[in-house]
Amino acid sequence: MEIKRNKYLDMLTLRKHNCFVKVITGIKGCGKSYILNTIFYKDLLKNGVDKNHIIKFAFDSAKDLALIGEDLQELNKNKRKVDPKKFIAYIESKIVDKEMYYLLLDEVQLLDCFESVLNGYLREKNLDIYVTGSNSKFLSNDVLTEFAGRGDEIHILPLSFSEFYASYKGNLNYAYDDYMVYGGLPAVALMQTNEQKISYLKTQIKNVYLKDIVERNNLSNDRNLEELLNILSSGISSLTNPTKLEKTFRSVKKSKISANTIDSYINYMRDAFILSKANRYDVKGKKYINTPYKIYFEDVGLRNAQLDFRQIENTHIMENVIYNELRYRGYLVDVGVVESRETVNGINKRKQLEIDFIANLGSKRYYIQSAYDIPNLDKLAQETKSFDMTNDSFKKIIIVEKSMEPRRTEKGYLIIGIKEFLLDMNSLDI
Fold this sequence. Notes:
alpha/beta, globular
């Protein structure tokens, strides 16, 4: 079964012939290689590109490496990268005319001096270059420097709920429950049993993602890294910072790991696309607040696997899912803070109210609250008090767990069900 990833196909299509190296990044298993080598490849053929003008090469494929006289086992044994001269000679043998050629290269970080090779190819007017790289070797931050400012990153997320549901065999409620527990990694979505999904996710988080981080960053062990990930998993959607986490380690884990080390570990996990950080933004002051911030998981299934599926807290997971959906739609997402003053027992006090998400895209801005349930007017007033204090005209939205037709409050705030929000790409503009 093919899971459609039309959004990413459109992103690749829009970038054709832009004189940049198209760099496809994302967490391991999110579908980077499939999107490039199957979906995009088929689209090129569909649009009349001769298959001889599409050069696919995977640097972790024994079959492909044999084409240039390299041996995968020998490379791994000697911890050696692919000889660029052999690869360049192979590409030159494939380019026999002045028509446009498309290079689709997988795991390009396994090619020695790949930056120089690809920068050299950028000078050729009839080459359009697309590459993927392992998240442990080839990270988003590297894109800024690897290609001397000529790298165009396309970040791939795990399946959105709409992508997940389009291939799901079952009703909407069951699909939503599965997504909240097992997440949206494509391999997991195609598995038939819960046992398979659990085993795969637990193996991936420990033996792949954490192992990659340890190896890339030359860490002596992964014990503190894993403990930190446990703490962050338990506290998704909660404000935190390295100093607070250091105190947790000292009091709960009896460990003296420093705030600086914790900050580094969080950045390692962000670079590996396991985690994402949402900074706080002062709506009235129009400025960012460096700390505390919120941590969310790129895939909620991995979060749940890290905790052995013990803490399936729908309120927090729902907030994580909303955050990921907003990013999938291309929004820059912050946590909002609105300062207000209240008089309590005759004393004027300053109070900070939170807006779960501020979603920005160009001139568009939305304020969004994730509210699992709004059973009465008091709860509604509590959830929207921060909206009341913004004193601006940007659209304000409350997302609830219950399926419901979108409706508006007396103050004009939109209330929409989570499933309706996730399945309608235009739901913010209703």
